[in-house]
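Researcher: Before we compare anything, I want clean individual predictions. No alignment, no superposition, just each chain on its own. First chain goes here; please echo the sequence and then give the structure tokens.
Model: Echoing the first chain and its structure:
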Amino acid sequence: MSAILRNLDELPRQNASHVKNRWGDVVRQVQESGSVAVTNHSTVEMVLLTAAAYNQLVEDAQAQKAREQSVLDELGRRFDARLDVLQQPGAAQKVGGLFAAKGKLGHRPKAGETF
């Protein structure tokens, strides 16, 4: 289950001084809303979020990284298989023959038994 996060502009905001002086209130607000943007001179500098939300973000990031690695591994296997075919004896002659044919077939293609 992925974490549902709001855009930075939609988060409740607290300035840094309020966070420092009223930490308990800010913690309650984070627990109620899930996250709070901390500002300094009206610029968001950080976001406070619950430990559960942070753990979910970490799990989602790790799952995404694993999916990406799986795709890269599959692409690597496919590349290696194609490279192995090109390194077989006689492959250079076959490729040379394809280029020499200039797109022309040596025989008429067969469309199927019903044609």
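Researcher: Okay. Second chain, same rules.
Model: Second chain and its structure:
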Amino acid sequence: MRTISRAKTTVLAVAASAALLAGAPSADASPRTGSLGLPAYSDLVVDQANHHVFVSGGKTGNGVVVTDFHGWVRKTIDGQFGASGLTLSADGRTLYVALASGDAISAIDTTTLTETARYPTGSQSCPAHLARTGTVVWFGYGCEEAWNGGIGKLDTATTPPSVTLDVQGANVHFHHAPLLASQAGDTGPLVAGQVELSQSAIHVYAVTGGKLDARASGAVVGSDLTDLALSPDGKTIYTASGSRDAVEAFNSADLTRAGAYHTGQYPNSVAASPDGKYLAGGVRNPRDDVYVYKTGGAAPLSTLDASSDGVLAPRGLAWSADDERLFAITRPANGSAPALRVLDSPADR
């Protein structure tokens, strides 16, 4: 195991210069610390083709920040009311954004970085979390903590694209908007879990003809579920729950246990690398807050310091497609304004 020093990281600057916003490269490659200019944080997505990272500000903000792979801000996309969950289309040309304060899902062109469409999800629906299988964008929605949350779908293959609510079935209710994770193939699976409950349950669905087919479910992840991830083949579910001291793994077919990856108390983030080789788990600790394992490994390959000036944000980790970078969202220990840290060579290969 080796700890990667802070000297091997790149941190997002508070504000990019006019030249950076125009797309000009920076000559200053020194590490920087600062805010993304967002009031809070909700989600991040890595666009490998364009070398962009998209970061949303949550229900109290109205923007999506776009950075390059060095952490420099390229643009802030305004008018995204309560921008929360993010997911990319199958061809990577469209970013879908759940607008928790706009009762809609917006579509943003990943080349021009401009909005091209907006799909209403219904009055007082508050879509918050996104996942995709094939051409269907699934969204976890629900405005209040009153067991009125559900799963909806945006079918982008219809003309015009259509929205349907309560596709999870009448026998399943969520306290509020459920967290979603999926694999991008047409058949999924799609996994839904309720965050921040004293006993969190997860539900696994197969996707058949654009419809959800209920499979395994159970309260196996402990309490205070914060993050979900799936292995690239969809066979393994990884969970980060506050009541555990490890990222846990479960077989998606029947929720039997498939290992655990020690992180220490209160894990809040988990990310599987796109090729399935590595797993990153994070905790809300100052320093030594990210653990990178070889999938199935007994000990971490490296322990990373993502937040020397704060703490790792919940659901704050994402890999680049080539495994060369791990992107981490941090925030002040007693604040909400996020910053982006780029961790180079996270597996120390």
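Researcher: What stands out in the second chain?
Model: Helices lie at 18-21. Additionally, The two ends are 12 Å apart (CA to CA).
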